């Protein structure tokens, strides 16, 4: 145990930093070099970095495409695996081996909270779909409905167990460390876990709403890197000395254009655009939402003067994609700045070392998390609520009410509508 | 500025501690004396402490009763005021005056996050009632409905502003302090603010659901103190050396009995039991929920042998009150232990000094917050969902859907019910 903690896996920030320094061939890929030459174009180390990073990027993109092709459940599984890795990286970050030895069970407690959070968040997101999946079997359906009904109480109960466990295992002279760990665990669960879980909510509204935002972040990252690599001269922000204005602007333009184009391409596959109402992996069919039906768009007057185009076919979703593109290129990078600042504040180079040339998984996910939340809120506020809230309420009625209650609701709604119609209210 | 920070209001934990020590007449009321005599009965200081604490307790109870009498909106206002005081106490706790001087706006940023959280949480809890309040005015109704629809997006936008503000004001060499403050603010908002806001959700389900849990915590506190005062000999937990097993057990029994009795008394006032569907303060009437209708209860066989009673009248809600009483006396005190442990870990005596003999407001609210969340989850899981979910869904339909959508929903629900009835599904 001891030598594992000290030599091979460094477990405190300081040890971690030393460990990094020892492996001198390692490349500094992610803007954490403090004395970076202002002329990034002439940086030597960066060619090697470029190759390493390109290889692992290509591998990741390949795996990603395969998983998207396999469908909602597989993407969800991928998200969960990433979340577990991130939690592991982050839990380890503030852990101190000598203190942990005096505190048996502190690791398990972290994971207890993690799985409670998981049950709570995924329960909220997926309960409806789970209920839809098991409707065929009366017994299972009643069981699942019951679990859903008491979902909040069950999670609360689990949380209270963790809370009491924490208090009853408080040890004199360790209070500060233990409270620090408690706060840290909760921050991770909220900032990292809960944020990234919005991804799953997006997936089931249609893979489109997961794939487009995630792709835009990747595109923005790649092009910020490429533009910075070839043209980078003006540093952007002190927090990340390797980021340049050239990279930022080049990437923004590319990302916004890509958003418009990608939305048009992705919007043509029902596999991507249809929401999934259950947890199966089978084929997906739906009436295309008007968002994904091509409409003619008259181009501004000056274009026909120069080009032979007067009109083009546009899917309405492409306008929404522009908003996503704008956010992905202007606001989401702040997620990365936040992570950089955090790493500087606590003097760590990367959150982990799982991906060659990229650092830990958490290092790659910082902007993705910000984007996932935005995509969710955008989708729920400006898209879903406009089109399918009737379906949502119907779903609610069918899952939560008994047959008698459904009938009662039907009668009362009927009476209300009659009254309104008579009052001329519309 | 400077002398205010240094002399009159101590702003770091250490300064705060020194400040406390100087005022030597101050009583140590809340279990933070490290060298407490094991025989608490013979403690001298405690008689003075007892008087101070009794006076302020009586004042608080008087004010509390008046506010409850005035109604939902006033109670809500009281909760909000308490929350603001708590946030103030807690924000100040980890603040360091010299660092703050180099960071203009760091205070405002904390309050920006606080009010964003407030808008978010209260928006979720009260939006439905707000919409009900303004139905008379068509224009206002549409405005409020619109705001409710984009409530999540608005709050997210405000949050993002705070997030970018934070990142853009990061200053070299201050990173660690600033990230610490950021994390601390978020912990306060989640642990203290969000938890305590559940109280408001309870209030509008019926003052009963706020008043009974809050009273049980107060009763448990008072009787733990009284029993500990007169009989306390066996220390309960190292975290709070003034807490004794005698106090704990005496208080538990008293609290559980009080819960049963109080529920019977409170359950007879429609002012306390009726839920309020809007934000007015007017008179309240409703058909009594079956929970509050007396039922005969046959006493166990051995009682009639000794006493002249065979049956008694019980409101069904009294059985639920027993659960609340159990929680208030067994689990909720862990909220207090948590606060004690936290104070020990960071070497502070009290979170503030607003209430003579009690410490800060936060010191009195620790168990209340745990209780409020429990009451909310208990209410939603085991009580509300059983009785009024038809009303809830109807509310949702009337606020979120247009008249046409309401009609569409009515038709589809009708068809579904017809199909089910034909299948013999019930």
TrEMBL record, chains A, B:
Its main location: membrane. Pathway: Phospholipid metabolism; CDP-diacylglycerol biosynthesis; CDP-diacylglycerol from sn-glycerol 3-phosphate: step 3/3; Lipid metabolism. Its cofactor is Mg(2+). Its EC number is 2.7.7.41. Requires a divalent cation for activity. Residues 1-14 have a biased composition (Polar residues). The chain crosses the membrane at residues 58-87, 108-127, 147-170, 182-201, 207-232, 244-266, 317-339. The keyword Zinc does not apply. It is a multi-pass membrane protein. It catalyses: a 1,2-diacyl-sn-glycero-3-phosphate + CTP + H(+) = a CDP-1,2-diacyl-sn-glycerol + diphosphate. Residues 1-23 are annotated as: Disordered. It is found in: Membrane. Keywords: Lipid biosynthesis, Lipid metabolism, Membrane, Nucleotidyltransferase, Phospholipid biosynthesis, Phospholipid metabolism, Transferase, Transmembrane, Transmembrane helix. GO terms for biological process: CDP-diacylglycerol biosynthetic process. GO terms for cellular component: endoplasmic reticulum membrane. GO terms for molecular function: phosphatidate cytidylyltransferase activity. Pfam families: CTP_transf_1. May be involved in the synthesis of minor phospholipids and in modulation of IP3-mediated signal transduction. Belongs to the CDS family. This is Phosphatidate cytidylyltransferase.
């Amino acid at each position: 145990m001891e030598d594992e903690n000290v030599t091979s896996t460094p477990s405190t920030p300081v040890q971690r930093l030393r460990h990094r320094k020892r492996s001198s061939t390692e490349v500094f890929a992610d803007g954490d070099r403090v004395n970076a030459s202002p002329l990034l174009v002439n940086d030597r180390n960066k060619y090697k970095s470029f190759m390493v990073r390109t290889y692992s990027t290509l591998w990741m993109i390949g795996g990603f495409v395969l998983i998207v092709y396999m469908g909602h459940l597989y993407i969800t599984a991928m998200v969960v695996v990433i979340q577990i890795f991130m939690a592991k990286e982050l839990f380890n970050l503030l852990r101190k081996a000598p203190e942990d030895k005096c505190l048996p069970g502190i690791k398990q407690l972290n994971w207890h909270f993690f799985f409670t959070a998981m049950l709570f968040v995924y329960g909220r997101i997926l309960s409806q779909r789970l209920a839809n999946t098991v409707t065929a079997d009366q017994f299972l359906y009643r069981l699942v409905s019951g679990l859903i009904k008491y979902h909040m109480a069950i999670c609360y109960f689990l949380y209270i167990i963790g809370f009491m466990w924490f208090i009853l295992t408080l040890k004199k002279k360790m209070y500060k460390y233990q409270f620090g760990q408690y706060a840290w665990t909760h921050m991770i669960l909220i900032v990292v876990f809960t944020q990234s879980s919005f991804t799953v909510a997006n997936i089931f509204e249609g893979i489109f709403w997961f794939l487009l935002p995630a792709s835009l972040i990747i595109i923005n990252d790649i092009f910020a890197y490429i533009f910075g690599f070839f043209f980078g001269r003006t540093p952007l922000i002190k927090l990340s000395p390797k980021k340049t204005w050239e990279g930022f602007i080049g990437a923004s333009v590319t990302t916004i254009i890509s958003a418009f184009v990608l939305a048009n391409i992705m919007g043509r596959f029902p596999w991507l655009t249809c929401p999934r109402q259950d947890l199966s992996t089978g084929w997906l069919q739906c009436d295309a939402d008007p968002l994904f039906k091509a409409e003619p768009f008259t181009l501004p007057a000056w274009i026909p003067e120069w080009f032979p185009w007067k009109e083009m076919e546009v899917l309405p979703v492409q306008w929404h994609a522009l908003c996503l593109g704008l956010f992905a290129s202007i606001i989401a990078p702040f997620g990365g700045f936040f992570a950089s600042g955090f790493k500087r504040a606590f003097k760590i180079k990367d959150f982990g070392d799982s991906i060659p040339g990229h650092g830990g998984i958490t290092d790659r996910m910082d902007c993705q998390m910000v984007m996932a939340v935005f995509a969710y809120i955008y989708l729920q506020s400006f898209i879903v609520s406009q089109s399918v809230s009737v379906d949502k309420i119907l779903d609610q009625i069918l899952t939560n009410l008994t047959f008698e209650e459904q009938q009662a609701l039907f009668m009362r709604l009927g009476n209300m509508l009659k009254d309104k119609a008579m009052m001329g209210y519309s």
